[in-house]
Description:
With 180 residues, the protein is of the alpha+beta class. Helix content is 61%, strand content 9%. Helix 1 packs across helix 2 (59-91) and helix 3 packs antiparallel against helix 4 (151-178). The longest helix has 33 residues, at 59-91. The mean pLDDT is 78.
Amino acid sequence: LATLVSPGRAAWRWIVGGDLTLTNAIAPTVSPPTIVTDGGVQASWSTAATTWTFTSPTAGQYLGAVLPGILTSAVAGWLCVLIWRLVTSVQADAAFTGAGTRRLRLIGWALAALTAAMVVGELGGNMLVTAGLPTSIPQPALLTLDAVPFVPLGIALIVMVIAHAWSRGDALAEDAAGTI
């Protein structure tokens, strides 16, 4: 949910022209002193989080802050439409048809695409936000990639296996329709 909400705050700050503040839960084990650069970037650490404040952010830094949410929202919307179509086909007793199987496979592909969107959005956003920062600032501190984006990929594999079983159910339904 944070991936979908936090870019909204960054987009609002972009619209009103305010500072851009990014916080993540990844923090060094020892807190270095607060760093302030000539370009208006302030980085502060604690044992709980790392906070970056960009007092004069560029358009690229704003875009980097909203990119993960934009990509994730787009794929999540597509996924919701696919799930809705599958549910309506199940309600119409058309689950074990070619269309139902295709819908289930598409849901599996959409879940895999969700993983890609999360990873690409986070990495691409990190690159856009940290572009042009002085090398004295530990730039990987903005990266918040962990195991969470890979959960939809595991679910996608399970959904693909279920889709294969549904295709077998479709074949059995065709056989049953052909028997006397």
